[in-house]
Design goal:
heterodimer; A: 506 residues; alpha/beta; Rossmann fold; 3 domains; 7-stranded mixed β-sheet; 6-stranded mixed β-sheet; B: 315 residues; mainly alpha; two-stranded antiparallel sheet; globular
């Protein structure tokens, strides 16, 4: 890799051949990157592309299997969380590490002075105010943190890093929580910082932001650097094309048998969705591609009944649902769900496997006159465990103790045992190892062949193109038309992901 | 009404209030430190008992009074260590552990007392702390006898409140400790140990609670007897809340509570006391506590991570 000339001087940070494996999963595969003084480098990639792992290695939370980190010309000792901080690298996490009941000044000072010392707040206050002035960050040192907006809190996190003499700032998806106005203010701050010689790594998956703030962009996919460009010499579509890859993956499975339309959305709008029209056919896997955060979650919630439509029409097997569209109604209509987050919405961590398998059907299947039939629940759980190869101690084990793959297999078994006519699989293989991925995919295909209408939502394009009979692309809450297998080109999908080429541009 | 007024302007009434408040101040400060770091210490009641016993036993065995205070502190700190180990690194339920510590410390004290003094029927006495009149200040009318003619341990209680306040708000240690009770992840992100901070807070806080207990045997009374702590620990839990987790306010509400306690004793001796059953007067401070809690607790800023165990690496 030839280092690209940045707008400014010497290399301040160099990652060299970083490789990190988790079991069979290669999270980082020989990643190298350089950062120069006064430069903003964007790290672009989907969830699971390896961005967070890379930053955790930089900050010593993980040990890399191979590779080295050099900060300001000096090698960074691996596995020491304080080392990066002391070398002048500051990180602004997505989840702020601030305390609501402390003041702004207290939050900034925390941990910067020896514990057993008496020092007035005067010097610290003056320093904070000076830094705030320099970087154009308006703060009131004595305000209680809890009274601040999210954008203001982020400013405090940045000030915290600056207060610790950070010369390199790493921002992990900083705009995910900001309003557009707050984002603009953040970008202005970053410009001021680079003008003062600071260097910034900007982690994001929003193309337009990367174009707006970064000098250079490094694209990660599946743990590898797949491209590096100067933003001046590219466009949003160009970046999207890099994220997509050189060629689209070939379909891995035979086409589905097809079937009648099971679920139809006609011009449905909801929070996060704009006049979405979609048909899910039996015997068909419909893939939903797109950069994450563009309305996938809302669409899954809408079909699952957790989100009520504001306008438009929902039809199941040609009929409009008789009552309100709720999760109960959706389950009743034969919608099965593999939730996006198996820990948060897929399972109850401290319930047993048996209890977890009965979560959606405990009233209809496992209760007799209002009393739970635990024997039936356990028998059912045993059937799921055996049928779906869940490695565990038995139905009475708490699900918290299972690995992600086994947990996902249990969720898969739970939904498949209901033989759903419509199956929403939202990120069904995120974080799983290769073996579990193949297993889940095979089961999805089997469900399709048995006549189910499957909606596969994924940020992994290879997964989408490998399995889907029909592909839609979602961008900013709008859905493209459906494309048949092989109809989409790499350039075409990149354009759609970047939000171009939609028929109903608002 | 005039009876109440006469009580309220008498120096002896306020002297009693300050005296009654002293053990509460120690224990409330101890609890406040624990809770500021994020640990609810329900062991307080039992730790006060062990402090009362250990301090008295040490003096009875020939130690100086201040030596007894030291022994009480160490005994409390030992139970604090146990409370801390179970709730901080092991992350067990703070309620259950606290109640267990209270039962354990109380029964240990009673058992040890019986073991040490098997033959005794009436509790033996020691020579307790004597009042220490502060020159000049004790001669101020009303205020002098009330505030400046107390035992050294009472002065220590107020000194302690100032020290705790300074440490919590004027030192990096205090900041780190409070942050551990607000957002432990923020503390850990700065390379500080939440476990060490919380353990330290629970151990030191428990020591203070025990000194509060020792006040009863070494300053207020001169002997140790069963049931002498009598719910004072539980009151201190409430006082921390009334005091909005601030040492200054905590002292204020402790004195207020003590004043009501002193008032009800005196009211029992007025003509009203002849008509109303004495249990009603005994209830008075507690009823007022509940009312105060309803009014004050709404606005208080509870430490955000109070009762939340912190496991490193977990989100």
């Amino acid at each position: 890799m030839t280092p690209t000339e940045g707008p400014a001087g010497e290399v301040v940070l160099r990652l060299d051949g970083i490789t990190k494996r988790f079991g069979g999963l290669v999270a980082n595969d020989a990643i190298s990157l350089t950062l120069r003084a006064g430069e903003v480098v964007a790290l672009l990639g989907e969830n699971g592309a390896g961005k967070t792992t890379l930053m955790n290695i930089l900050f010593g939370h993980y040990l890399a299997d191979q590779g080295s980190v050099t900060v300001f010309g000096k090698p960074l000792p691996p596995g020491q969380p304080r080392a990066a901080l002391q070398a002048g690298v500051g990180m602004v996490h997505q989840h702020f590490t601030l305390a609501d009941n402390l003041t702004v000044l207290e939050n900034i000072r925390l941990g910067t002075e020896p514990l057993l010392s008496f020092r007035g707040a005067g010097a610290a206050r003056a320093r904070v105010l000076a830094l705030a002035q320099d970087f154009g960050l308006a703060v009131h040192p004595d305000a209680r943190l809890g009274s601040l907006s999210v954008g203001e809190r982020q400013r405090i996190e940045i000030l915290k890093a600056l207060y610790r003499n950070a010369r390199i700032l790493i921002l992990d998806e900083p705009t995910a929580v900001l309003t557009p106005q707050e984002s603009d203010a953040l970008f202005a701050t970053l410009k001021k910082a680079t003008a003062r010689g600071l260097s910034i790594i900007f982690i994001s998956h929003k193309l337009q932001e990367v174009m707006a703030v970064a000098d250079r962009c490094i694209v990660l996919r599946q743990g590898r650097v797949v491209g590096e460009v100067e933003t001046r010499g590219t466009s949003r579509a160009g970046l999207a094309a890099m994220m997509v890859g050189e060629t689209l993956a070939e379909a891995k499975v035979a086409p589905g048998p097809g079937g009648p339309v099971r679920l139809r959305l006609a011009e449905v709008s909801a929070p996060g969705l704009h006049r979405v029209s979609l048909e899910l056919r039996g015997g068909t896997i419909t893939g939903l591609a797109g950069v994450s955060g563009n309305g996938q979650a809302a669409l899954a919630d809408l079909i699952g009944g957790a989100l009520a439509p504001l306008s438009g029409r929902i039809e199941v097997d040609g009929n409009r649902p008789s009552g309100a569209w709720t999760p109960q109604a959706a389950i009743g209509a034969g919608v099965g769900r593999i939730p996006e987050d198996r820990h948060k919405t897929g399972t109850v961590a401290d319930f047993t496997l048996a209890e977890n398998t009965a979560l959606e059907t405990y009233r209809s299947r496992f209760a007799r006159r209002g009393v739970m039939d635990w024997r039936a629940v356990r028998a059912h759980a045993r059937a799921v465990i055996d049928g779906y190869d869940v490695r565990c101690e038995g139905p009475d084990q708490r699900i918290r103790l299972l690995s992600g793959g086994n947990m996902q297999k249990l969720i898969l078994g739970r939904v498949m045992e209901e033989a759903p006519g419509i199956l929403i699989a939202n990120q069904p293989v995120r974080g799983l190892d290769v073996g579990a991925i193949a297993y889940v995919h095979a089961r999805l295909v089997a469900a399709r062949d048995a006549g189910a209408a499957v909606l596969l939502i994924s940020e992994d394009l290879d997964e989408i193109t490998g399995l889907s009979d029909v592909i839609h692309v979602i961008s900013a809450g709008r859905l493209s038309r459906g494309f048949a297998r092989g109809e989409l080109t790499q350039a075409g999908i990149g354009l759609l992901m970047a939000g171009q080429g939609f028929e109903h541009a608002a | 009404m005039t009876a109440i007024w006469e009580i309220l302007i008498s120096a002896s009434f306020w002297a009693a209030a300050i005296r009654i408040a002293s053990p509460l101040i120690f224990a409330t400060l101890g609890e406040l430190i624990c809770e500021r770091a994020g640990v609810l210490n329900l062991g307080i009641e039992g730790i006060m008992v062990i402090g009362a016993f250990a301090g008295w036993m040490a003096v009875y065995g020939g130690m100086s009074l201040w030596g007894g205070v030291g022994v009480a502190f160490l005994a409390g700190a030992a139970f604090g260590l146990l409370q801390g180990l179970l709730t901080v690194p092991f992350g067990l339920s703070q309620h259950v552990v606290g109640l267990g510590i209270t039962l354990l410390a109380t029964s240990t004290s009673y058992y040890a007392y019986r073991l040490a003094l098997p033959e005794v029927t009436s509790p033996p006495k020691i020579e307790p702390f004597q009042n220490w009149e502060i020159p000049f200040l004790s001669e101020i009318p009303l205020l002098g006898p009330a505030l400046f003619s107390q035992t050294p341990l009472t002065y220590a209680a107020f000194g302690c409140a100032i020290a705790v306040s300074v440490v919590l708000w004027r030192t990096p240690l205090g900041l780190a400790l409070r942050a551990a009770g607000e957002n432990p992840a923020a503390v850990e992100a700065q390379g500080l140990s939440v476990t060490a901070l919380r353990m330290g807070a629970v151990i030191f806080g428990s020591g203070l609670m025990a000194v509060g207990g020792a006040f009863l045997t070494l300053s207020a009374f001169s002997s140790f007897f069963f049931e002498m702590v009598n719910g004072r620990g539980w009151i201190c839990i409430a006082l921390v809340v009334f005091g909005a987790w601030r040492p200054g306010k905590a002292v204020l509400v402790a004195v207020l509570f003590a004043a009501f306690d002193a008032l009800q004793i005196r009211l029992q001796q007025t003509p009203v006391g002849a008509v109303v059953p004495y249990q009603v007067f005994l209830m008075l401070p507690y009823v007022l506590s509940i009312l105060a809690l309803i009014v004050m607790a709404r606005r208080a800023e509870v430490p955000a991570a109070l009762m939340v165990p912190y496991n490193k690496g977990e989100r």
